[in-house]
Amino acid sequence: MEIRSIKGNTFCIDTGMTYIPFYKINDEKIIMLDSGWSKGEREGIEELLEKNNFKVVGIICSHFHIDHVGNSAYLKEKYNCVIAMPAYEAFVCSSTVNLKLYYSSQTLSDVTEHYGHSVCKTDIMIFDNQDSVCVQGIKFKIFHTPGHSPAHICIITPDDVAYLGDSLISYEVMEGAKMPYAYILLEDLKSKIKLYDLKCSRYVVAHKGMYYDIEKLITDNIDFYKGRAKGVYSVIEGSMTMEDILKASIKKFNISVKTKYKYNLMERMLRSYVEYLCEVKIVKLNMENGFLKYSKCL
Fold first, then answer.
1. How far apart are CA 9 and CA 26, in angstroms?
2. Number of other CB atoms surrounding residue 210 within 10 Å
3. pTM score
4. Using CA atoms, how far apart are residues 298 and 287, in angstroms rounded to an integer?
5. 209-211 sheet: strands from edge to edge
6. Backbone angles phi, psi at 182, to 5 degrees
7. In terms of residue numbers, what domain contains 217?
8. In terms of domains, do 275 and 154 share one?
């Protein structure tokens, strides 16, 4: 892991898997934008913070997914820092019971085992009508991009550096992604279109992308996600249950599924694509002989 300078007082921790931006208030105090994954990242992040004598006084979270809030509770306990997060996302990760509302196909025990470390207490709620948030006296602009998660946000530092979180994926991710995740693909695509209006001097994508201009990246993201949706559409033959489509998609995209955790993840990912196909009215959902089945619209 290493610290990379972006612009002014805005830096990022390069974990090897992700970029975690932070804003330096002074030589000691920093505000992190997301906190990274607990498994595989915590030790390196903590080592970098201690090596540079940094004290985390605030964390602004783009959304509640485990690779973005996995260290929030830990860092809050260690540094007594404040945590800011979109209000709905804060509600979801406030308890394992609330997390199960999101991971509904898994038992509470499974949710606790796999996602329990993402539970944290949020001090500052960011609401849908807010275009900024003040943390430790520092004002950050907020750009709302729901879709990847229910209330995902982008965060712009005082240096005019936009942290895009997972609202876009980098070209590096596109090269290897079998089926990138979106909670509601239709809304995610709308948010990607909104990003054409976001004008900043630098842009940081969580999963290792740093850019001066994102116009082409936005277009390529939209095409990539729509292309994956077309791929899902192509496997639908006759009337199929969601599980039928899942099995066909796993085969088409050559996805390795060896654990129930991965299977549940794939089911959540696929559902967004199938629902998108229903929203754009090229697939329909019907009840057939007591089962919900999807078929192409004629």
1. 9
2. 16
3. 0.93
4. 17
5. 132-135, 138-144, 153-156, 161-165, 202-205, 209-211
6. -145, 135
7. 2-225
8. no
